[in-house]
Amino acid sequence: MKKMTQYILKEKLLFPIIFTLTWAILQVATGPNDWSFKIIWALVLFIIISLFTFSKNDNYIQKPVIENETISIQYQENFLKAQPKIFTTNAKSIENFKFSSSSFLGLSYSITINFIDESNLYDKITFQTNNETFFIDLIYQLKEIKTKSSTASTTS
Fold this sequence. Notes:
alpha+beta
């Protein structure tokens, strides 16, 4: 659990730090003006961007379980909400899924699942992870269960 919190903190703070440092370097390069004003602006900018990134709700995968036609993914929302949640659906309700990776500002992988919920409405959920092996295994399992589900529905 401690590694998950460290990963989430790193993910949430990396963009504000790099953006603020870039802004500060550009301000220093423009010439020697009022340094106290620039430092205060850099802190305000960092706080505003950090608040924005922390307010964004991200789902971080803790443990997926794929058995038969059922997909259950235990995940954590941000690091402040330590109580894990569970996303459960069956393979037939999944419309499609999209995988992406990002190597900018740290290696991170995301999985977006588009599915039909209990009310027959389209919904989507996005999960993130930083474990490459885990990500590749999850891709394989999801594609395999979706293929089995689609071949079973076409043969019947």
